[in-house]
Design goal:
285 residues, alpha/beta, Rossmann fold, 2 domains, 11 helices
Length: 285
């Protein structure tokens, strides 16, 4: 299996096509396979690199995932791009991978030609510390419906999924996590078997949600490249608000909604997603 060693971290990757490089950064609880519906269409005209982040399948890495922070993952991504001689790249990141992609674009603008943030889980755009009652109360006063949506995710998905993971109940943990980010009970059970298996293979990465997320309200304004922010039409309200906040905070940003999708628009409605992103990439150079 092809892998690249970055600061002692072995990252599995797949590299196809030729032309201007595109790198895809996946979210939780997925891996490089999350982009299978993009690899073929995008590699017709571009070099496409998909990779698995440090604890994602099929990487062999022991540990309790506490070192899988946004910052460390951004450094992994930087090393991957540099070792593959790919930069500057068009960078596409989903959810937690979107936060990582945004961090890299802010810290190393020379490596990122354009940026696509898919349902970016940059939660610190809403509140810097989700455990702070004062900050959550402030959000409730400013945006009651968004605060309720975020709190609903915490109580019904985030905390129970982490408890299930600690108890070794991986299938339960994944189900709670996916149903929560989808904002719809039964979402995980309704997915095709191959998607469910991919997510079960990456149950361990749910623990990344325990890591401390960096403040990003000031950092995001350092991103100067053309950026497309994407939300699923039926995504949870708190995630849609993050998408809007990201788009309005960036100096050169466009916003798109993918119909008939929730938190995984690149999987749930790949044809529309691919068309939107390829159009953006063709016009953002």
């Amino acid at each position: 299996m092809p892998s690249v060693d970055v600061n002692g971290v072995a990252l599995y990757y797949e590299d196809s096509g030729s032309g201007q490089p595109i790198v895809f950064s996946h979210g939780i609880p997925t891996d490089y396979r999350a982009w299978s519906a993009q690899t073929g269409p995008f590699s017709k005209t571009r070099r496409v690199v998909t990779y698995s982040r440090r604890y994602a399948y099929p990487n062999k890495r022991e540990g309790d995932v506490t070192d899988s922070t946004v910052g460390n993952n951004a450094e992994d991504l930087r090393g991957l791009i540099e070792k593959l001689g790919a930069g500057p790249v068009d960078l596409i990141g989903h959810s937690y991978g979107g936060f990582i992609a945004a961090q890299l674009a802010a810290d190393h603008p020379e490596l990122v030609r354009s940026l696509v943030l898919v349902e970016p889980a940059i939660s610190t755009l809403l509140v810097e510390d989700e455990r702070s009652r004062g900050q959550m109360l402030s959000l409730l006063i400013r945006s009651p419906s968004v605060a309720i949506s975020a709190r609903d995710f915490q109580l019904k998905s985030l905390y129970p999924s982490l408890m299930a993971l600690d108890a070794g109940e991986t299938a339960k943990a994944v189900g709670l996590n996916v149903d929560g980010v989808q904002g719809a009970p039964g979402s995980f059970a309704a997915m095709p078997a191959s998607q469910r298996q991919m997510m079960l293979d990456n149950a361990k990465t749910i623990a990344e949600l325990r890591t401390k997320f960096p403040p990003f309200k000031a950092q995001i304004r350092k991103i100067t490249c053309n950026t497309l922010v994407i939300n699923g039409e039926e995504s949870a309200l708190w995630l849609r608000r993050i998408g809007k906040l990201a788009a309005t905070s960036l100096p050169h940003a466009w916003f798109a909604i993918i119909s008939k999708s929730r938190h995984f628009p690149h999987i749930e409605n790949a044809p529309e997603f691919n068309e939107r992103v390829l159009n953006f990439l063709s016009t953002s150079s």
